[in-house]
């Protein structure tokens, strides 16, 4: 987490100096990772020294903790205008800060103009600071959570950090108290040590045992939940450890520290003058200086004493550093050593190396780091543990004179170091259960090191003073060579080795990812290269100190490589691009199972480099150069796509390892519904354990943060591409490929894996990666969604939509279906009426897009409901408009109106008759259905066509019918059947598929095709299905999608598609294409019995000959080419493409254009964007397959009981019908033989009792087609019912009441 550079600085002047001092202090104190001595020789070639403090993982982690504390303070003090009625306390502010820290812009919602108060909060007012007095040497240990650290004078070289073996573990309270003491010494120049046992006599006066912090006790209601929870030590420490409070506490402890110094000086003076041996009588011990140490209180609760000390040992808490920043600012920037007595003067800064090494020699490199890009701000993650990492002494920077660093220890010395007990005997006051404790900074797991490990560490520590006179080593050169080490890059061997090390040593991060470890069944290695192993000469248990050294080195290597975008590219790319997808996935699987948080955080930092603009935009000659000042390093789209591929594979590897494609798809469906567990219904059930594993992976905050930044890169890189296109002064005119296209091309590549995988594993990987990429995109969308259909177009949500769109266009090559892209979660929570209507008037921009602009994420049922909601809204608007006008006309023509002339009233009514009509009424006779329809639809205004439809069919011949949908259905069935009749010469029907297509060069005028298109548009607008069958190519053309592939025409012309496929797939080893197929490069078709052919050309201006443009005496076949070029192996691809274009476009262009104009007459052009070709085909044609079971479940009964014998016999008969008879039954009852979109649930099918028939010649079953009601008499037996029902269906014709 980094603070914004454009925001006012809270710390006032000198903040940059403070940042430098932070790095310098951390450089002095954090443990340096070094390559252990038993490392294989092969890995040494990849090891480099790290000179930049920002590239040291321990420094980076401590800095982030410091920034989190600053954010906590900001959340508490700077939420102007957005704070609740009760002010935020530090606990609630910390909770909010942790949430904001997981976001990419943590400070966005904080007021930038308010500064935090300089004074402390009320939380520390009850604290009392003073000296700790002892009663006797055998005193008890005190409270259970109070430690017993003591302040002791420095030993050896100033600034030397030492830690004694046998130190007792302290609790959280005492640890925090020690952290407080670290921040408090006078001028922060006093190097102190932690000592829990009196190993050597001290000069401290008898009866004084350091500095203690107590809290005034007050009465507390122990029955109060709030008092027991918020009055606990843990909650109070959250308030004490804020920067402002730490600064105030440091001043108070400094006063007590001065008192302690005065007492020590008095004791030294008394001992020198009286000839004492350093011990004064107890009677001379001064009394407790209450006036200097106590502070007033406003509230307090009972709490035991807290002792503080300043400890800078390697086991000290690095997390406490952020608490020293504000309180040490003055000491760092302007130390004043003259305030101390001459014989007690210490170094001016306890965190900087002593005077033996000059300040300039400290390796604090000011080079910019990768996380300093201005477009993105690195943030602290709440998942980074706050427990410090206790480190081994052997890894701490040594004093200026070093006999042998850890990296120089010989392998033979690892287990043979002398026992430190001979050098430093234990204190007689030490408890036997005290031991050296080691704390895992990532896991928070406390483990005890062995005695052998402790001895080896103490030897390296305690023998330095003895070795110093004999070593003639230049301190400067020694320190320069003792830098942190890391791997410079990764390869498969290195990844396998470091992951095996952490797994064998049990030092991996604790995580919830599955599988938690990579066993031998999953582990892969290259057959050509030998695996790396550590050098071990004994079979003894592996030492704890070496385990810890390996842990530090591996963590530093992962951080150093994965946080540097160039190092990532060097590790996972070659001259041919990124390594194969499966090997990359395996590498990420290994890394995410040993250090997932570290991997995700490091890659998140590396992605910051992709927000830097390309070099073209940074050029001084570019008009956009002023927008990107100070940005130097940049990456091309090819490099950006490679880095994004690595990050995406890390996210894919984080998901549970599923090896069943069906299970993988089912889990994707569960996540698409926004569910954690499948509850039945349309989602298949899966094991609860697997569902919870998915939930753990896709809700991991670090992984989600990486996914959000990763998806944000996509719109950013595309904006850069647009700026480059607009840049008139660009040097290179070649446009860079799109970053998403490059990313998907890596997934599509069929490169042979570097590692050995079985065929089944490779097949599963090809299915796993695209599905999980969509799952991660949906996870980010669900996380970012605010419940509105308008979403951000340039953020993570917009990037996820862009990725899904690109994958949707390539879904066939990625082995994906339409169902993989759906996210039913959004459709279930959006208003199905208002949302699509508001979308019509919404204009998408870069910043805001509408979710309906991406219809593929909705299921077909939702899209149909949105489409019909738009049509219904337009229909209602026209109806209400005409109703309002009609009411005004009625008011004018009323008898008491101002218009008295009847002639004027009649003229006014005639003029406004069309505008005031509420319905579109068609009077159709059965003898001339199509002609009457054409006559009454010709030149109708758009507002008339959009009104509700009413059809009067056959009323001129005495038929009676109330139009509740059945009359309309009958009218369209008759009209369309007549219009598509091949005898009229407008359409042709394939004998095999019964598909209808336009007649090339038809003799019918174009206006008739337009009216036929209007008829179909009117039916779709009113929600009716038609008994027609068009090829899917027609619907693709109606939606503006190209028809260029063979599968686009396979349903309409299957024989032709098979023949062209054979041409494309023919192997010329078996003969040349021109000799085997003997095809000419021309398009041929039959026009009214005449074979017409033309040589195909690639020009788009070619038109097909029409009968109306040729005299009758000149046949069209006369212009057929005598000779045309042959189709060869070289031009067969072009031949197939041109043939498809001539078949579906050139030969029928005039007819289709007229048909399309009529089809779009009633439908809003934007509403058609919701539909796919398949969905539009279902809207127009419905479904021809009739499921009797679904029809029976949807049926309703009037006068019948569902268990009646006749009802059971009826469904038994219908179940045995073939498809033709089933369609006849459905048409007999509903006037349509098609099932509409949505299934049988959208059909009204009512079975009503119509009396009893005891004889053999009773009434036939009849139907109210208007209402979808079947009138079924009760027959004598099943055979009579079958006979009468079949007779009714075979002879059904006409319309009306039976």
Automatic annotation (TrEMBL):
Region Disordered: start and end of each range? 144-212, 267-370, 384-457, 1102-1124
Give this protein's Gene Ontology molecular function annotations.
ubiquitin protein ligase activity
Compositionally skewed regions (Basic and acidic residues) per UniProt: 289-302
Active site (catalytic residues): 1266
GO BP: any one term: protein polyubiquitination
Q: Which reaction does it catalyse?
A: S-ubiquitinyl-[E2 ubiquitin-conjugating enzyme]-L-cysteine + [acceptor protein]-L-lysine = [E2 ubiquitin-conjugating enzyme]-L-cysteine + N(6)-ubiquitinyl-[acceptor protein]-L-lysine
Task: Report what the protein is called.
Answer: HECT-type E3 ubiquitin transferase
Origin species:
Daldinia eschscholtzii
């Amino acid at each position: 987490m980094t603070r914004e550079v454009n925001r006012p600085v809270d710390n006032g002047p000198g903040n940059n100096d403070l940042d430098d001092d932070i790095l310098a202090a951390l450089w002095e104190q954090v443990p340096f990772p070094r390559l252990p001595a038993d490392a294989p020789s092969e890995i040494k070639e990849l090891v480099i020294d790290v000179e930049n403090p920002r590239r040291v993982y321990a420094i980076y982690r401590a800095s982030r903790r410091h920034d989190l504390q600053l954010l906590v303070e900001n959340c508490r003090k700077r939420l102007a205008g957005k704070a609740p009625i009760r002010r935020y306390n530090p606990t609630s502010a910390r909770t909010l800060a942790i949430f904001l820290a997981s976001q990419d812009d943590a400070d966005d919602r904080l007021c930038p103009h308010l500064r935090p108060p300089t004074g402390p909060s009320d939380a520390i007012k009850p604290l009392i600071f003073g000296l700790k007095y002892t009663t006797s040497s055998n005193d008890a240990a005190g409270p259970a959570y109070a430690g017993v650290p003591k302040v002791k004078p420095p030993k050896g070289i100033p600034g030397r950090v030492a830690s004694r073996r046998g130190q007792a573990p302290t609790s959280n309270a005492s640890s925090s108290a020690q952290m407080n003491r670290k921040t408090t010494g006078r001028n922060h120049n006093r190097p102190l040590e932690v000592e829990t046992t009196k190993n050597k006599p001290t000069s401290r006066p008898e009866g004084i045992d350091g500095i203690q912090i107590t809290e005034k006790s007050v009465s507390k209601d122990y029955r109060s939940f709030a008092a027991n929870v918020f009055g606990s030590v843990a909650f109070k420490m959250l308030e004490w450890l804020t920067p402002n409070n730490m600064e105030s506490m440091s001043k108070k402890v400094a006063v007590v520290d001065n008192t302690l110094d005065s007492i020590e000086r008095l004791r030294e003076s008394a001992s020198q003058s009286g000839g004492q041996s350093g011990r004064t009588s107890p009677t001379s011990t001064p009394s407790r200086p209450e006036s200097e140490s106590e502070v007033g209180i406003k509230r307090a609760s009972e709490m035991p004493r807290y002792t503080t000390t300043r400890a800078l040992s390697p086991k000290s808490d690095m997390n406490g550093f952020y608490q020293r920043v504000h309180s040490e600012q003055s000491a760092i920037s302007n130390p004043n050593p003259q305030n101390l007595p001459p014989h007690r003067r210490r170094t001016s800064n306890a965190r900087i190396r002593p005077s033996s090494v000059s300040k300039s020699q400290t390796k604090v490199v000011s080079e910019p780091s990768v996380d300093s890009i201005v477009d993105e701000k690195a943030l602290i993650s709440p998942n980074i543990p706050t427990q410090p990492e206790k480190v081994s002494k052997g890894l701490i920077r040594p004093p200026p004179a070093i006999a042998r660093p850890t990296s120089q220890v010989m392998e033979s010395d690892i287990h043979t170091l002398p026992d430190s007990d001979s050098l430093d005997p234990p204190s007689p006051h030490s408890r036997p259960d005290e031991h050296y404790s080691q704390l895992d900074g990532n896991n928070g797991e406390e483990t005890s090191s062995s005695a052998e490990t402790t001895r080896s560490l103490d030897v390296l520590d305690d023998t330095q003073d003895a070795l110093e006179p004999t070593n003639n080593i230049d301190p400067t050169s020694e320190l320069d060579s003792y830098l942190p080490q890391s791997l410079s890059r990764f390869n498969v061997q290195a990844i396998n080795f470091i992951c095996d090390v952490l797994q064998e040593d049990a030092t991996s991060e604790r995580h919830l990812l599955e599988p938690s470890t990579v066993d031998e069944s999953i582990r892969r290695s290259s057959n050509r290269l030998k695996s790396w192993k550590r050098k071990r000469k004994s079979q003894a248990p592996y030492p704890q100190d070496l385990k810890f050294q390996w842990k530090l080195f591996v963590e530093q290597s992962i951080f150093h490589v994965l946080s540097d975008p160039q190092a990532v590219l060097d590790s996972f790319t070659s001259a041919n691009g990124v390594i194969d997808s499966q090997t990359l996935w395996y590498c990420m699987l290994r890394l995410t199972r040993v250090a997932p948080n570290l991997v995700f955080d490091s890659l998140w930092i590396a992605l910051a480099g992709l927000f830097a603009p390309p070099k073209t935009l940074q050029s001084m000659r570019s008009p956009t150069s002023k927008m990107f000042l100070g940005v130097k390093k940049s990456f091309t789209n090819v490099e950006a796509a490679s880095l994004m591929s690595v990050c995406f594979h890390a996210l894919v590897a984080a998901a549970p390892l599923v090896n069943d494609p069906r299970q993988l798809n089912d889990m994707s469906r569960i996540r698409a519904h926004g569910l954690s567990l499948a509850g039945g219904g349309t989602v298949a059930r899966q094991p609860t354990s697997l569902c919870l594993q998915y939930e753990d992976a896709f809700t991991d905050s670090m992984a989600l943060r990486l996914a959000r930044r990763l998806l944000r890169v996509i719109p950013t890189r595309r904006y850069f591409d647009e700026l480059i296109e607009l840049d008139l002064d660009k040097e290179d005119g070649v446009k860079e490929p799109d970053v998403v296209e490059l990313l998907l091309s890596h997934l599509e590549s069929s490169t042979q894996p570097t590692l050995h995988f079985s065929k089944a594993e490779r097949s599963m990987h090809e299915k796993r990666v695209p599905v999980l990429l969509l799952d991660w995109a949906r996870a980010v969308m669900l996380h970012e969604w605010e419940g509105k259909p308008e979403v951000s177009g340039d953020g993570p949500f917009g990037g996820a939509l862009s990725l899904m769109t690109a994958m949707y266009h390539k879904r066939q090559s990625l082995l994906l279906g339409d169902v993989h892209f759906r996210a039913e979660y959004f459709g279930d929570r959006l208003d199905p009426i208002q949302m699509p209507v508001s979308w019509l008037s919404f204009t998408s921009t870069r910043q805001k897009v509408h979710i309906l602009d991406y219809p593929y994420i909705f299921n077909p049922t939702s899209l149909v409901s949105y489409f019909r909601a738009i049509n219904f809204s337009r229909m209602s608007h026209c109806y209400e408009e005409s109703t309002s006008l009609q009411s005004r006309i009625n008011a004018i023509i009323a008898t008491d109106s101002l218009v008295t002339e009847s002639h004027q009233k009649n003229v006014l009514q005639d003029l406004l008759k069309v505008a005031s009509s509420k319905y579109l009424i068609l009077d159709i006779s059965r003898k001339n259905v199509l002609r009457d329809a054409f006559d009454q639809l010709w030149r109708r205004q758009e507002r008339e066509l959009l009104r509700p439809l009413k059809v009067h069919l056959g009323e001129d011949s005495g038929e009676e019918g109330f139009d509740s949908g059945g009359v309309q259905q009958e009218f369209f069935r008759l009209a369309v059947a007549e219009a598509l009749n091949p005898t009229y010469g407008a359409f042709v029907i394939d004998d095999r598929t019964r598909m209808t297509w336009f007649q090339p060069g038809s003799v019918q005028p174009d206006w008739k095709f337009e009216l036929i298109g209007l008829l179909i548009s009117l039916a779709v607008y009113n929600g009716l299905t038609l008994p027609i069958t068009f090829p899917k190519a027609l619907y693709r053309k109606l939606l503006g999608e190209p028809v260029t592939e063979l599968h686009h025409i396979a349903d309409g012309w299957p024989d032709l598609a098979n023949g062209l496929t054979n041409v494309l797939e023919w192997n010329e080893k078996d003969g040349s294409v021109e000799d085997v197929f003997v095809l000419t490069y021309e398009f041929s078709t039959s026009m009214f019995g005449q074979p017409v052919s033309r040589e195909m050309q690639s020009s788009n201006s070619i038109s097909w000959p029409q009968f109306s443009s040729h005299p009758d005496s000149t046949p069209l076949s006369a212009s057929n080419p005598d000779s045309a070029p042959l189709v060869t192996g070289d031009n067969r691809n072009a031949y197939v493409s041109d043939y498809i274009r001539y078949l579906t476009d050139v030969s029928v262009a005039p007819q289709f254009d007229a048909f399309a104009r009529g089809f779009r007459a009633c439908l809003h052009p934007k509403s058609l964007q919701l539909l796919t070709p398949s969905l539009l085909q279902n809207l127009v044609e419905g479904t021809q397959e009739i499921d009797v079971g679904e029809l029976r479940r949807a049926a309703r009964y009037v006068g019948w009981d569902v268990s009646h014998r006749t009802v059971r016999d009826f469904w038994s008969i219908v179940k045995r019908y073939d498809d033709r008879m089933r369609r006849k039954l459905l048409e007999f009852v509903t006037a349509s033989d098609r099932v509409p979109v949505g299934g049988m649930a959208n059909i009204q099918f009512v079975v009503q009792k119509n009396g009893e028939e005891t004889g053999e010649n009773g009434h036939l079953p009849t139907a109210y087609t208007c209402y979808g009601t079947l009138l079924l008499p009760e027959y004598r037996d099943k055979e009579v019912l079958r006979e009468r029902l079949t007779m009714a269906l075979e002879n059904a014709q006409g319309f009306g009441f039976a």
